[in-house]
Structure formats: structure tokens, C-alpha cells
Design a protein that fits this description.
alpha+beta, Aminopeptidase, Glutaredoxin, 2 domains, 7-stranded mixed sheet
């Protein structure tokens, strides 16, 4: 593996460091700046964003579960939001190094374990479950609609989805999206869906998750985005392609 510098974002460097998510623009990007503002508020809560010092997505992002914006509960755990290695950086061991860093950080902080959101069938926008399982992560909870909670436990205790998250249903039949500003692609996805709905006279409801309390009370799994249609939870996948949305609306 090449010797390359890893950087942890801090309140001192977050304003100038590349966020490693969107790489094809030199201009201010609304999604990136929204994430930067969201992340700045989270750093003081123990949130960690560690990245390779390159202009490609190579990073891990995690936080104490008590402060993680997900409907998962448990004491003394770390929750991994995202582990992403992309482009020319694949196959160089960076993913292994980043995940090992989070594991050692958890041990150093006296945590009981780490956990992350997964699914029965691997989905986009979620950490590669097969990769995590190589490090000893195993299923500790699940929903009836195809999502799993994987954990690496140091003391045999386990976190769990909230009862609300396991429901996967809401009363409204409208296309409904819950979202926060953690991911730079959220802005693009919301605008894509909004424009499609306006063009095709589709009723929609966008609900911005603005507090930790709201995130913990969500009626489905959530990793920064969740979509319902006809009252049923459909996906955590961001919709950047209208063809995916078209197929969903034909159900």
C-alpha cells in the first residue's frame, strides 16, 4: 500500500479540507456546503470523519451511537455511517486501514462495539456488508422488510433497531422522503425527485430531519435518506436517476 496521509476533520480544518464525496467540481456545491455545516455541528459530539488526503472518495465516517442520526439504540457503541473507497484508490488496502482505524478507536475509547446498517441484498449507499463481515461483523437485528444491523461486539452486548424503525410504514400514501444534510448527494436527489413530481403531477412530501430526536424516532431504517410510497418503506437508496423513480411509481 502506498504511503499516503490520512486526515481527521476537525473544527480547525473543516472549512478548507476537501470532503472527499463529490470530486468533479471546483465551485461551491450546495450539497457539499450543507454537509460541511451539518458535520461541523457533529464534530463536537464525537463524530469522526477520516479521509485520505486525495481528491477521490476515500473515507470513513462514524459517531457514538447515542449521537448518531439513525433509529438504532444501544449504550456505548460506535455507529459507522459510511466507508467508501472509490476510483483509482480501490485495491490498495485503504478500506481495510480505515475500518481497522475505527475498530482500534472504539477499543481505545472503551466502546462495547461498532455497528452499521446493512441489508439482506447489498444496496447502493450502504457500506459493503461482505467486506465488514471479513472483520467479524455479524447480524444482531433485522427488519421484516429486508434490512439488517451488523455489529462487531467486544463484550457480547448488542444494539438494536427501535420498534418504530421496524414498522416500515406510514399513514400517508404520497411519495414521502425523509432526509437530512449529511450526504452531499442529498441535495441533487431531492431536486431530481421534486422536478419529476412537478412535471408528472405526482404528489410528494419531503420531510427534513433536523434533530437527533427526530432521527431516532423515524418509522424505518435511515442512514440520511428514506423513501416511502403508498405507505410502505421502499429504500434508503438516493434517487439520482428518474428511471428508478418511474419504476417505483408504477407499483
Amino acid at each position: 500500500m502506498e504511503s499516503t496521509k490520512f486526515i481527521n476533520l476537525t473544527e480547525d480544518n473543516i472549512a478548507t479540507e476537501h470532503l472527499s464525496c463529490i470530486v468533479r467540481t471546483t465551485k461551491l456545491h450546495p450539497g457539499v456546503e450543507a454537509k460541511r455545516a451539518w458535520l461541523k455541528d457533529r464534530l463536537k459530539e464525537g463524530h469522526v470523519f477520516r479521509k485520505l488526503d486525495v481528491k477521490e472518495p476515500v473515507f470513513i465516517e462514524y459517531a457514538p451511537l447515542e449521537n448518531a442520526w439513525v433509529p438504532i439504540v444501544g449504550d456505548n457503541y460506535l455507529y459507522i455511517y459510511c466507508l467508501w473507497v472509490s476510483g483509482t484508490c480501490k485495491g490498495k488496502g485503504y478500506g481495510r486501514e480505515l475500518l481497522n482505524y475505527s475498530i482500534e478507536d472504539a477499543r481505545a475509547k472503551g466502546k462495547s462495539e461498532l455497528c452499521l446498517l446493512s441489508s439482506v441484498k447489498q444496496k447502493h449507499w450502504l457500506t459493503d456488508q461482505a467486506f465488514a463481515k471479513k472483520f467479524g461483523f455479524t447480524k444482531v437485528d433485522e427488519t421484516a422488510y429486508g434490512y439488517e444491523l451488523l455489529a462487531l461486539s467486544f463484550d457480547k452486548t448488542v444494539p438494536q433497531f427501535t420498534a418504530e424503525a421496524k414498522k416500515g410504514r406510514i399513514e400517508s400514501p404520497e411519495l414521502t422522503i425523509y432526509f437530512d444534510e449529511q450526504c452531499p448527494f442529498i441535495n441533487q436527489s431531492i431536486e431530481t425527485v421534486k422536478q419529476y413530481c412537478l412535471d408528472h403531477c405526482v404528489k410528494y412530501n419531503f420531510i427534513k430531519v433536523e434533530t437527533l430526536k427526530d432521527a431516532k424516532a423515524l418509522p424505518c431504517v435511515f442512514n440520511n435518506f428514506a423513501l416511502f410510497y403508498k405507505g410502505c418503506f421502499e429504500t434508503v437508496n438516493l434517487l439520482l436517476d428518474t428511471k428508478v423513480l418511474e419504476r417505483l411509481l408504477k407499483k
